[in-house]
């Protein structure tokens, strides 16, 4: 699970990242790795414009896959982390791509996903970094599973339980037939 933008306070301890990781672990029994991008917390290095952070995600995901090759591979991220996950997906080939709060207003284009990956995208209906109608339109055009949480902002403030319930349902659909 990749976290939000490091220059705007994003860390592996961001509430949505913690909730998503716990959901994948506790509800679906999957091994999960939360990590800090370079320069965040005790991590060495400095912000590298997204390219370096995507490399961090690739390295972290490969480390986890080497230790758990039998588990379905879910690659996920929140906000900036979701964009890094989209970029990393073509290299990593996940079974499921779990996107949270993709900030479509901040990026000219949103990368595609490998055809083999099932994509589940969850967004706040009031997300200040992405108009829900644009997000829904983009997801539908790509045949991605999309859910907008009513009355939720980018951080899902006071809507964390609704986020978690919708995420559990969406991930259940995405992982259908892939869990042992």
Written description of the protein model:
The chain has 180 residues and is of the alpha/beta class. The protein has helices at 15-27, 51-67, 80-92, 132-141, 160-175, and strands spanning 74-78, 96-100, 118-124, 145-149. It has one domain: Alpha/Beta hydrolase fold, catalytic domain (Rossmann fold). It has five helices and four strands. The chain has a four-stranded parallel beta sheet, sandwiched between helices. Helix 1 packs across helix 5 (160-175) and helix 2 (51-67) crosses helix 3 (80-92). It is globular, with a radius of gyration of 15 Å. The two termini are 21 Å apart. 39% of the residues are buried. The mean pLDDT is 96.
